[in-house]
Amino acid sequence: MPVYGRQPVAFVRGEGTRLWDTDGREYLDFVAGIAVMSVGHSHPKVIDAVRSQIGLLTHVSNLYYTEPQIRLAERLHELLGWGKVFFANSGAEANECAVKLARRWQREQARPGRTGLVAALGSFHGRTVATLAATGQLSKHEPFEPLPAELVHHVPLNDAEALEGAVDDGIGAVLLEVVQGEGGINPATPEYLKAARELCDERGVLLIFDEVQTGLGRTGRWFGFQHSGVIPDVVTLAKALGGGLPIGACIAREDVADAFRPGDHATTFGGGPVPSAAALAVLDVIAGEKLVENSATMGERLVSRLHEALDGNAAVKEVRGVGLLVGVELTGEWSRDAVDGCRERGLLVNNVRPDMIRLSPPLTVAASEVDRAVEILTEVLGSYGEYAG
What's the pLDDT at 389? Predict the structure, then answer.
């Protein structure tokens, strides 16, 4: 169906930070499957885990226990230090679970009228009806309206006063990204997240952090919220978790998770043996190869080199990012053309807005690859700088 504006290239092989197309041409991948391939393409430990598991057990449904799923839930609990897990197939489904859980928990607290959410303008939480309504990009709503208008109230990111005004007796949860990815690489400030935590505690509202894009090392910490020290009641993960296989997770503190009863929520495929085995291998690689630390180091290098190279370029408004989630905001709507220019020179980046380029390479990226990406992007944006000037 015609829902993708695909680029004119087809890939057949990947290894580490590199991809090869049908003509055998090599590319440096700074998209990473939209922040999915954090341990790189075709990592041998992930391949071995998937091959081994698929030869043993592929699927039995969640009517039964499987060892990989149990081990993965335990591993996520250990990483966070708290929580029970619901496994889904994607970030949107993980967020959908969080929305339902918030309503169920409020009902358990004898507050069934608290069915609404507060979310941030510029956010992206998925494309199901509920998560699309939560997404704070109104242009994405228009083709599918009416959406459940009573579900979500949107407020500006980092505006604590607006957040306080929005959390009334009809609100059951606040849903935030710690860094807006699709919205343009917009970090929530630590002060804002702390204000959100205090407000939710004061008014009996759940605080949900959508870490689908930022979780598992992307920001230079295991979880993006760890930069602020603010602990949510619920956190959602996906993307990097499965190493390219579809898996998502909604993790809630124990007393919140226990609001669910058998039959309240379900999934046929979520947390199946093969994606769970892949996820366990991914977590092993991130820890064993110190990729969280590499994300922090290479992220600092990427931002600093971009600042140095693009300083004075009239086409560039700002460079910003956290870890290896970095954006270059332009002074004009040239990002799609810039993406094409980079691809033609062997670098893959993507445009999240008409004026914003996103860079999210595998966490395995090396210094020489960071420098090469900056060199190509600088070359491409040089012509726009002359035009803008």
Answer: 53
Q: Rounded to an integer, what distance in angstroms lies between the CA atom of residue 254 and that of residue 261? A: 13
Identify the structural domains of the chain with CATH numbers, from first to last: 11-30+290-388 (3.90.1150.10), 45-288 (3.40.640.10)
* Per-residue pLDDT tens digits for 32-79: 999 999 999 999 999 999 999 999 999 999 999 999 999 999 999 999
The catalytic site residues sit at 124, 210, 239
Q: How confident is the model at residue 388 (pLDDT cuts 50, 70, 90)?
A: low
Given a contact cutoff of 8 angstroms between Cβ atoms, the answer to whether 28 and 346 are in contact is yes
Closest residue by Cα to residue 176 from 214, 228, 119: 119
Write down the pLDDT at residue 338.
96
Residues 136 and 119: beta-carbon distance below 8 Å: yes
Which residues on neighbouring strands pair with residue 248, listed in sequence order? 88
Contacts of residue 248, Cβ cutoff 8 Å, sequence gap at least 6: 87, 88, 89, 90, 91, 92, 93, 94, 212, 236, 237, 238, 241, 270
Q: Which residues of 263-290 are buried (b: 16+ CB within 10 A; e: fewer)?
A: eebebebbbbbbbbbbbbbbbebbeebe
> How many CA atoms are closer than 13 Å to the CA of 56, on its beta-carbon side?
13
pLDDT given for residue 150 in this prediction: 67
Per-residue pLDDT at 145 exceeds 90: no
Which backbone phi and psi does 166 adopt, to 5 degrees? -85, -25
Tokens 């922090």 — which residue? 296
- Residue 75 identity (one-letter amino acid): R
Q: What is the mean pLDDT of residues 151-158?
A: 94
Whose CA is closest to 34, among 373, 388, 348?
Answer: 348
What CA–CA distance (Å, rounded) separates 266 from 250?
12
Q: What band does 385 get if pLDDT is binned at 50, 70 and 90? A: low
DSSP letters for 101-136: HHHHHHHHTT-TT--EEEEETT----SSHHHHHHSS
**118 with 166: CB under 8 angstroms?**
yes
Least confident of 145-154, 161-170, 374-383: 145-154
**What is the residue whose two structure tokens read 């598991």?**
53
